[in-house]
From TrEMBL:
<dbReference type="InterPro" id="IPR017469">
    <property type="entry name" value="PEP-CTERM_FemAB-rel"/>
</dbReference>
<dbReference type="InterPro" id="IPR016181">
    <property type="entry name" value="Acyl_CoA_acyltransferase"/>
</dbReference>
<dbReference type="InterPro" id="IPR038740">
    <property type="entry name" value="BioF2-like_GNAT_dom"/>
</dbReference>
<dbReference type="InterPro" id="IPR050644">
    <property type="entry name" value="PG_Glycine_Bridge_Synth"/>
</dbReference>
<feature type="domain" description="BioF2-like acetyltransferase">
    <location>
        <begin position="167"/>
        <end position="300"/>
    </location>
</feature>
<dbReference type="Pfam" id="PF13480">
    <property type="entry name" value="Acetyltransf_6"/>
</dbReference>
<protein>
    <submittedName>
        <fullName>FemAB family PEP-CTERM system-associated protein</fullName>
    </submittedName>
</protein>
């Protein structure tokens, strides 16, 4: 796709992501769009591609030079899971961000052409304007739900907003011997990644390379930080969050085995709610969880209501459907085996595998 192709007054083209002016233009488009998410931003999809050795693309649609639609993309290639054009990679959101006057079908056609040029057999759209379920496209709904609600006006109201049973757990965590710290420095990153690695191993999931988390932190700048809960000087729960259009999204987080006994995760999320409001945020986006999973019920216990999500996927003619969902039945045995690995071995092997999950 070396040259743009026109349909009426509209044209689709690939943006030169090495051009700082183009990056700034995309960031401005997302910032002004009501449906923009952190995952539409170059700060996300360019950062994750750089850190994982994959390639980022931005497919846009313009009318008379004005940007009317954006499709952020990461071309993720894995010898284990195959290749995919994901919008966006390593994200739970993304997809087509379209303004009035855009022509989504034309952009989806350009996307399929790009996949063909890259010999990529699969596309995944994790939100946004979706195509019709035809011509290789399939829609999947109800498998995941998102959880978000407004933040309360003060600390006491935030605690009261939590349902009684979960509120009791938070009160116990507040009485415990726990310390909370928020930052972006090397000590924060190292503590977070140590907890993150242990948490992912315990879940049976290959851990992402630390470079991925660092790259997102650097890409978002002051719009991302790490909140860590420690006990007797040791980090037991930690979360990396991003901030976008008045909402905080705790994205990469976890806890050690000890965290449950200490109720450190309960303390972590409550403290993040308070911290986010002090930063000027008005909404808490708890992110997505698989329907009826443990995380799904955990978020409901906090008073968040599930919002079903619909994703779209495309498979090239004759190609097998891509399977890279760590929660799938197909990968259940691998998950159980991974949970038994020594932490050191899991930490060495995990980033090699995880950079291709996308």
């Amino acid at each position: 796709m070396n040259a743009p192709f026109a349909i009426g007054m509209l044209r689709e083209r690939l943006v030169d992501l090495s051009d700082p002016n183009e990056i700034a233009r995309l960031e401005a488009f997302v910032a002004l769009h009501d449906e923009g998410t952190p995952f539409h931003r170059p700060a996300w999809f360019v950062s994750v591609a750089r850190a994982t050795g994959n390639t980022a693309y931005a497919l846009v649609q313009e009318r008379g030079g004005e940007l009317v639609a954006l499709m952020p993309l990461d071309h993720v290639v894995s010898p284990v899971f195959g290749a995919v054009l994901a919008s966006s990679g390593f994200a739970v959101g993304g997809g087509l961000l379209a303004s009035e006057g855009a022509d989504p079908p034309a952009l989806f056609a350009a996307l399929e052409e790009l996949a063909a040029r890259l010999a990529c057999p699969a596309i995944e759209l994790r939100g946004g304007t979706l195509p019709q379920a035809a011509g290789g496209w399939a829609l999947q709904g109800a498998s995941h739900c998102n959880f978000a609600r407004d933040l309360a006006t003060d600390d006491a109201a935030e605690l009261t907003a939590i349902p009684r049973k979960q509120r009791a757990e938070v009160r116990k965590s507040l009485a415990g011997d726990l310390t909370v710290h928020v930052g972006r420095g090397e000590a924060d990153r190292a503590a977070h990644y140590a907890v993150f690695c242990e948490s992912y191993r315990n879940l049976g999931t290959p851990v992402f390379p630390r470079a991925l988390l660092d790259s997102v932190l650097d890409g978002f700048g002051e719009e991302a930080d790490i909140l860590t809960v420690t006990h007797e000087g040791r980090a037991v729960a930690s979360v990396l969050s991003v901030y976008h259009q008045g909402a905080v999204m705790p994205y990469w987080g976890g806890g050690t085995w000890e965290a449950r006994r200490l109720r450190a995760n309960d303390r972590m999320y409550y403290e993040l709610m308070l911290h986010a409001r002090r930063r000027g945020m008005t909404r808490f986006d708890f992110g997505r969880s698989k329907t009826q999973s443990g995380a799904y019920h955990f978020k409901r216990n906090w008073g968040f209501e599930p919002e079903p999500l619909t994703y779209a996927s495309w498979t090239a003619p004759g190609a097998p459907r891509r399977e890279a969902n760590p929660a799938s039945a197909k990968l259940a045995l691998q998950i159980r085996l991974w949970q038994r690995l020594p932490l050191g071995l899991a930490n060495r092997l995990g980033p090699i595998i995880a950079r291709g999950i996308g």
